[in-house]
Amino acid sequence: MHHRGIGYHDGTHITFIGHATTLIEMGDVRILTDPVLRPRFRFLKRRAAMPRTATLFSDKIDAVVLSHMHFDHMDYPSLGMIPDSTPIIAPEGAGRYLARKVGHEIIEMRVGDTVDVGSIRIQATPSNHQSGFYWPMWFSKTVLSYMIMGSQTVHFVGDTALFDGMKELGEQFDIDVSLLPVWGCGPYLRGDHMTPSEAAEALTMLSPRVAVPIHWGTLHPMGPWWKRMAFLWHPPHAFAWEASNSAPNTDVRVLHPGECTVVRSEPDRTEAEVPALMPRIKPVLA
Ligand SMILES: [Zn+2]
Ligand SMILES: [Zn+2]
Fold it and tell me: How far is the CA of 192 from the centre of ligand 2 (A)?
């Protein structure tokens, strides 16, 4: 076990790096989700700022989790940027593909499987996202979400449509933070994705204490005219608005790509004694 100068004991640090890429720092453990760390790939261009990879990797990433094999979640050049000593936790079947592309240890998971990473236990949980059975999904069409359990429980959902199993997840787990997709890929919402209002409905089943909307605002097709379109900024605000009605007990924190929030175990005084009048929405910097 490597020694670490810093730890994250004041609460769980959640950084929304962009799209489904988040950094979860809890206790002594750092988990990176669905890393896409390139300024452009396929037909998409990143509109959000690039993470400083030197800073990101200055302290060890203890594990990468991959929700599924769609290209906006599994990008092997991005995985190649991550030191080989970091294991990759991926859906069953993904190992055959990944082993050809990267040198990391691959830990394959099915729904219900758990793996311990330092003081954190990660359990594979279901998602409902069947769309686009195309290469390299040929290797694995399993789509997972992950329950990341330490001092708090963070539910990372890469992609999903609304489904009844969310109710069971909400009953089975005491979710502190839900990282929930609120849009599709680029301007497209087709396939098994949630609209912002469906994502707000998901909160009524998952009942997390805090929700951070992800899978929005990061990628757009090539061409300058896309930059000002509403799909790049509107989804999390619609989600926060809907959630303020349907799930008033969930603290929705809208982070722009690059921003971080700390979720404390004990709600601080402001949270506990002063009910939030409005969801935490940052001004739009288009
Ligand atoms: Zn997908
Ligand atoms: Zn996606």
Answer: 9
Burial (CB < 10 A; 0-12, 13-18, 19+), residue 106, is: middle
What residues are neighbours of ligand 1 (ion), with CB under 5 Å?
70, 159
Name the domain count of the chain: 1
60 CA → ligand 2 middle, Å: 26
The CA angle 28-69-18, to the nearest 5 degrees, is: 55
Range of the domain at 61: 12-273
The two structure tokens encoding residue 48: 């959000």
Which of 196, 171, 181, 204 is CA-nearest to residue 128? 181
* Burial label, 18 (beta-carbon count in 10 A; 0-12, 13-18, 19+): buried
Asked whether residue 278 is assigned to any structural domain, the reply reads no
- The domain that holds 36 is classified in CATH as 3.60.15.10
The ligand whose atoms approach the alpha carbon of 69 most closely is 1
Ligand 2: distance of its center to the CA of 272 in Å? 35
Residue 22 forms part of a structural domain: yes
Q: What is the pTM of this model?
A: 0.91
Instruction: Return averaged pLDDT per consecutive 10 residues of the chain, 286 residues in all.
Output: 59 95 96 96 87 90 96 94 97 93 97 97 95 63 95 97 97 98 87 94 97 94 83 93 94 94 73 58 52
